[in-house]
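Pair request: fold both.
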Amino acid sequence: MAGWPAVLLFAAIAGVAGLVGVWIMWRHEAWARRHTGELITFASGLLVSGSLLHLVPRAVDLTGLGPAMAWTLVFFVVVYIAENHFFPHPHARSEDELDGGHVRGHGHSGHAHESPFGMAAIFGLGLHSALDGIVVGAGFSASFITGSVIVSLVVAHKIPVGIASMGVLYHGGLPRRKAATYSSAVALLTPLTVIISYAVLRDATPTVLGALVAAAGGTFLYVGAADLLPEGQASGLKRNTLAFLLGIAVMVVALALVPH
């Protein structure tokens, strides 16, 4: 189990990652849109490999093979249902799609009112950020290494998701400043829930921690394989495939260098 100083440090890092994505979209929108594909596929490689190589095996160690795989599957399905039927998940869009009105809807300059899609996306992103914080707290309750792996996965997808959420909310009808404010508030939910979940879970049983680590594995596996990878590969650029493979390689090397 990690101590409070490490938990607070990594909680802050997770929060800053989301704010970095918002800042990049605010200050360097053109650059962000050109390179979001590489950022997304790199994050996908980290999430998929981290889930399969560390989180799911760690959950097996804590709670047994059957329960660990069951919880992984349950949360994979839960995230799928939530994103596809209740809370839309913002995706990065090309400039052509934005100009074509599919996302903007109200016109780039109008931003007359907050669209139902935008508000539902904010709520969905808030739940996603809270879940990120819970699994980080659970990971550090299980072990410092598990917590560190989960933080790295959270950081990896927070930056491209921050870019995408800021862009979609802005172009979907919210004023630019309000889109940045909402996206920043969503990002800061993660460190808050890290602190709360660690305080609650640091004395939890291995069975409970195993279920939560498996939940993290299922959640990140879905986000990496079903959300980020298809989105990043939509442009079909070879460098996106290289970014995906680089994400896997970075995770493999990182796990090989740290003691388990």
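--- second member of the pair ---
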Amino acid sequence: MVLLGIRRKTLILRIKMDKKDQKNEDRSIGYQADTINVFNGASPKNKSIIAEVVNILSGSCTLESFPLDSSPLPSKVEEKIIHNNVNRCRHIIETYKDNVIDLGYAYKTIEELRPGRHQKLLHIISRCYKNELGKLFDDGNFSQEKIRQNSDQILENIMHVLREKTLESSNLNAENEDVDIAIGVIVADAFISCVVLENSGGAV
């Protein structure tokens, strides 16, 4: 009887230990699953100024507002296009140059909400351009001819970066086509306003 009682206590103790181990394993598995979800989940999106501008432009610019027969470019803009040897992206400047009024309204709107945002956005665009220059002149030797050879690619890369920033924004409220149009307007204005690429009189 004494031996039977000892065996019974041993069995009960072993069952309790097995249950405890099972709980520890469950907790461990659960913790690991939570950790996996945290690291594998999509990064939370943040608001951006450029998305606000795109939202405003998407409500004011329509495809009908872009005439097929665009008016001639101002002489200074034409001179800058030739100086930088812009070819592939010329149509962007020609198509969206007349929409600077819409863009001006968008910039005025975001500026009224919080002063300094327009300048911050121009800084972002300028930094995108400087980053492209950094790729071309990693040795520090600046060359206008090298910019001329890569001007279209520079503009396309800037538009790509701005588009990605816009699509990653949590406050974006526009369709993809509207995003493409708005980015075209923004970059065309940046070119005309001498934020990107070089003036014939020297570096921007």
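Observation on the second member. Confidence is low (pLDDT under 50) at residues 1-13, 22-40.
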